[in-house]
Write a structure and sequence with these properties.
The protein is α+β, with helices and mostly antiparallel strands and 353 residues long. Helix content is 47%, strand content 22%. It contains 4 helices and 14 strands. The strands form 3 sheets. Strands 1-10-13-12-11-14 form a 6-stranded antiparallel barrel. A 4-stranded antiparallel beta sheet has the order 2-9-7-4, with no helix packed on it. A hairpin with a 2-residue loop joins β11 and β12. α2 packs antiparallel against α3. InterPro entries: MdtA-like_BSH, MdtA-like_HH, MFP.
């Protein structure tokens, strides 16, 4: 009887040892599974530092003014060219009217300058014609003076007659000199008047540029969507005054979505441009997306920070850097699920070893 009890105890002890060993092995397997699939310790193929990115366009005002109308709501889908905000146009209409008046004044100034040029040119022509007449009379008088000189030497005319001809030559010469001075003065007046014409042309051009600027500013009172996308948070209200360059909203260009994965240095050898990556988005757990690596950053993320790290200070601590990698969605993704992906969502992926 005692021998039988010992055998039973020994057998129970063996079963208990096997059971404990089995439980221990199962526990180790569970711990290994948790570490591998959830904690990912020392798993260089696992990436959870990735997010959905897209171009976000700031929408700014180019001109100052009071807001009359707002034609969008937060998170509203818009198309390129849709009207978003309309500013008060009163001051800009007045600016156009003033610019048009300035242009008319400059054009009238050119007409007046053209008339002055014609008048001065006509006076110069008149002086030139008079000079030709006096020149002809002077040439005849000089010829008569030479003839009378010979006659006086032969006592064929009196001294008084000779002196009359001589006086006539001097008078005509004086008239010619006076007309020549008038001609020079007329030339200077013509040049000066023509320069006024050039100034008038410049004033017209400046007035035309001012009118175009005023018309352009009027156009800027209607702020439109620069691209297709979804509006972000609205920070303005009707009646508010905005300054040039002030941001009134942001536009998310959803058509440009991609995934940016910040990979560790040791993970870079596992990828190359053109590789196809499969990943999931935390908000859409049961759906797997496909992407293609299109670019790998030429520098680590820290080099693009406002104050890049400087390892020459003497207190260097080695930290493994991360390198941004751009992954674009392929055409194989379901558009229905792709529309649910939002910018900033977290992405999880496993690289091929």
């Amino acid at each position: 009887m005692a021998t039988s009890d010992k055998k039973i105890k020994k057998k129970n002890k063996l079963y208990l040892t096997l059971l404990n060993a089995f439980v221990f092995i199962i526990t180790l397997l569970v711990i290994w599974y948790v570490i591998k699939n959830y904690l990912h310790i020392n798993d260089e193929t696992y990436v959870n530092d990735a997010q959905v990115k897209a171009y976000i366009s700031p929408i700014n005002s180019r001109v100052p003014g009071y807001i009359n109308e707002i034609h969008f709501k937060e998170h509203q889908e818009v198309k390129k060219g849709d009207t978003l905000v309309v500013l008060d146009k009163t001051e800009f209409d007045n600016a156009i009217a003033q610019a048009e008046a300035g242009l008319s004044q400059a054009q009238a100034g050119k007409i007046a300058a053209s008339s002055s040029v014609a008048r001065v040119s006509s006076g110069e022509s008149t002086v030139q014609a008079n000079m030709y007449g006096v020149q002809a009379q002077l040439n005849n008088a000089k010829a008569d003076l030479a003839r009378y000189k010979n006659l006086l030497d032969n006592d064929a005319v009196t001294l008084q007659q000779y002196q009359q001809i001589e006086t006539q030559v001097k008078t005509l010469q004086s008239q010619y000199n006076t007309l020549n001075k008038q001609k020079n003065t007329a030339k200077l007046s013509t040049s000066e008047t023509e320069s006024q014409l050039a100034i008038s042309d410049a004033q017209i051009k400046a007035a035309e540029v001012g009118l175009k600027r005023a018309q352009l500013n009027l156009k800027y009172t209607v702020i439109t969507a620069p691209e297709n996308g979804v509006m972000g948070r609205r920070t303005i209200t009707a009646g508010a005054f905005i300054q040039p360059g002030q941001q009134i909203a942001a536009l998310v260009q959803e058509e440009s979505k991609w995934v940016e994965a910040n990979l560790l240095e040791t993970q870079i050898p596992l990828i190359q441009i053109g590789d196809v990556i499969r990943f999931t988005v935390d908000a859409i757990k049961k759906t797997e997306f496909e992407g293609k690596i299109t670019s790998i950053s030429a520098a680590t993320g820290s080099q693009f920070s406002a104050i890049p790290t400087d390892n020459s200070a003497g207190n260097f601590v080695k930290v493994q850097q991360r390198i941004p990698v751009k992954i674009e969605f392929t055409e194989n993704n379901d558009p229905k699920f792709l529309e649910r992906v939002r910018v900033g969502m977290n992405v999880v992926m496993t690289l091929k070893d």
